[in-house]
Design goal:
By secondary structure, the protein is α/β, with parallel strands linked by helices. The chain contains 16 helices and 13 strands. It has helices spanning 14-22, 47-59, 72-83, 88-91, 102-117, 131-139, 159-168, 191-204, 221-224, 226-233, 265-280, 289-299, 301-332, 339-343, 355-365, 385-397; strands at 29-30, 95-101, 123-127, 144-148, 150-151, 156-157, 174-177, 207-212, 239-243, 255-261, 348-350, 367-368, 374-376. Strands 2-10-9-8-7-3-4 form a 7-stranded mixed beta sheet. Strand 5 and strand 6 form a beta hairpin. Helix 2 crosses helix 12, helix 2 runs antiparallel to helix 13 (301-332) and helix 15 crosses helix 16. The protein is globular and about 65 Å long. The structure holds ligand KET. Residues 13, 33-34, 102-104, 130, 132, 178, 183, 211, 213, 243, 245, 251, 256 line the site of ligand KET.
C-alpha cells in the first residue's frame, strides 16, 4: 500500500540530535541542535519556572480546552514582551496575537494566513536561514526563495546587496528576517542597518515576517526586540513569531506566539478571527501547561525579575564560551583569525567548516555540529571546550 513512498532522508538538525542521543561514547559533545546546556552539560530547569510550576501544581487546576487562540493572560504577556510594556500598537488593540504550538507552529499558522489572505505574495528568506523556515512556508503552499545575507569571505553580512535586492522585490512580498541571534550564522544587523531595511520596506510596500526564537540571548530581552519595535514605530505591519523554547528552557512544552500587527483595531479583530479559523482546522486549540508556566512567570513581578536574571546568566555563559573557544583556538592555531566567534550573537556560530570536516569531527571525535558548519556554542562548557578546540585544531591543520 505504501511501497511507493520515498524513504524520509531525515531532518538535517533533528536527525543529528537523534544520532547524538544514540552515540555510546561518554565524551560526546552536542553542538548541533539549538539547545542551551548549562555548565554541567544539562538542560536547565529555570528556578523561576520551577517555582511557578510548584504553585500551579498545588492549585490543581483542571485541564479544560483553551480558547482556539490561546489563553488571554498568556497572549497579553507575549504582546508585552515582544512589543514592549509601553507599546502604542498594543494599547490601540492593533495587534492580533495567538498562542503558538512552539515557534514552529506559530510560523506555520502565519504561513497559512499568508497563503489564504495575501494571494500572490511570495516569501523571501535569508541565504542561509533555519532549514525549517523553508519547509514550513512550502508546507503551506507558498513559494519561497532566498535573499543575499551571509558573506563567507568576510564572515559578515552582504548588507548592500541585501538592501538592493529588497528594493527590487514587488510590493506585497513577504520578507522573513530574524530580529536577533540569526540562525544559523550568528550575524545580526546593526541598528543603523535595520533603519535602512525599514526605509526600503516602507518605500517598496514589503511585508516583514520577523521570527524571534532567541529573545534575550543576544544583548538583552528588551534590546533583542529592538528591530521589531522599530518597525512597528515606523508604521510597518510585521507578522512576528516568538518562541519560549530557548529563553524559558521549555522546549517540549511547545510555547510560542504569532502576532500580526495591523493598521487598525478593526482589522486586528478580523485577522484574529481568521487566525482562529486557521487553527481550528489544524489542531483546534493549543496545549495548556507550558503556557500557564510562562504566563505565571511573566505576570508575577518577583518571578519575572528572576527570569530576567536567569536569561542574563545564560546569555553571559554563551558569551564566555565564545571567548574561551576563541582563546583556545588561537593558542593552537596562531595566525588564524577566529574573531568571528566573539563577534557573532546568540547560540550559533557559522564556522566555515565543510561538511566533510563536520563528518570527521563527529566520527573521529564525537563532536556533533550541523553539516552546514553551524555550531551551537551553548553546548560548550569549561569541561569540554578544550577537547572541542583540540579536535577543531586537528581538523583545521589537516587543511593545509
Ligand atoms: N525559529 C528559529 C529561527 C529557530 O532556530 C527555531 C528552532 C524555531 C523557530 C523553532 O522553535 P520551537 O519553539 O522549538 O518550535 N531551532 C532549533 C531547533 C529546531 O531545529 O527545531 C535549531 O535550529 O536547532
Amino acid at each position: 500500500m505504501y511501497q511507493h513512498l520515498p524513504v524520509y532522508a531525515g531532518d538535517p538538525i533533528l536527525s543529528l540530535h537523534e544520532a547524538f542521543m544514540a552515540d555510546p561514547r561518554p565524551n560526546k559533545v552536542s553542538l548541533s541542535i539549538g539547545l542551551y546546556f548549562d555548565e554541567q552539560g544539562r538542560l536547565p530547569v529555570l528556578d523561576s519556572v520551577r517555582q511557578a510550576d510548584k504553585k500551579l501544581r498545588e492549585q490543581e487546576r483542571p485541564s479544560g480546552y483553551l480558547p482556539i487562540e490561546g489563553a488571554p493572560d498568556y497572549r497579553a504577556a507575549v504582546q508585552k514582551l515582544v512589543f514592549g510594556a509601553d507599546s502604542a500598537a498594543v494599547a490601540e488593540g492593533r495587534i492580533a496575537t495567538i498562542q503558538g504550538v512552539g515557534g514552529s507552529g506559530a510560523i506555520r499558522i502565519g504561513a497559512d494566513f499568508i497563503k489564504s489572505f495575501m494571494p500572490g505574495s511570495d516569501v523571501w528568506v535569508s541565504d542561509p536561514t533555519w532549514d525549517n523556515h523553508e519547509s514550513l512556508m512550502q508546507g503551506a503552499g507558498l513559494k519561497v526563495a532566498r535573499y543575499p545575507y551571509y558573506d563567507a569571505d568576510s564572515n559578515g553580512l552582504r548588507y548592500d546587496e541585501m538592501l538592493a535586492f529588497f528594493a527590487r522585490l514587488p510590493a506585497g512580498s513577504v520578507v522573513l528576517m530574524q530580529p536577533c541571534c540569526h540562525n544559523p550564522t550568528g550575524i545580526d544587523l546593526s541598528k543603523a542597518q535595520w533603519s535602512g531595511v525599514i526605509q526600503v520596506m516602507k518605500d517598496g510596500g514589503l511585508v516583514p515576517f520577523l521570527d524571534m526564537a532567541y529573545q534575550g540571548f543576544g544583548e538583552g530581552i528588551e534590546e533583542d526586540a529592538w528591530a521589531v519595535r522599530a518597525m512597528v514605530e515606523a508604521g510597518l505591519c510585521p507578522l512576528v513569531t516568538n518562541s519560549f523554547s530557548k529563553n524559558f528552557s521549555l522546549y517540549g512544552e511547545r510555547c510560542g506566539g504569532l502576532s500580526v500587527v495591523c493598521p487598525s483595531a478593526d482589522e486586528a479583530d478580523r485577522v484574529l478571527g481568521q487566525l482562529k479559523a486557521g487553527i481550528r482546522r489544524v489542531y483546534s486549540s493549543p496545549p495548556l501547561h507550558g503556557e500557564r508556566l510562562v504566563a505565571a512567570v511573566l505576570d508575577t513581578p518577583a518571578l519575572h525579575q528572576q527570569w530576567v536574571a536567569e536569561v542574563k546568566d545564560m546569555r553571559e555563559r554563551i558569551k564566555r564560551m565564545r571567548v574561551l573557544l576563541a582563546e583556545r583556538l588561537t593558542a593552537g592555531l596562531p595566525g588564524m583569525s577566529v574573531d568571528f566567534l566573539t563577534e557573532q550573537h546568540g547560540m550559533f556560530s557559522y564556522t566555515g567548516l565543510t561538511s566533510d570536516e563536520v563528518d570527521t569531527l563527529r566520527e573521529k571525535h564525537g563532536i556533533y555540529l550541523v553539516r552546514s558548519g553551524r555550531m551551537c556554542v551553548a553546548g560548550l562548557n569549561e569541561g569540554n571546550v578544550q577537547a572541542v578546540a583540540d579536535a577543531l585544531i586537528v581538523v583545521l591543520r589537516a587543511r593545509s
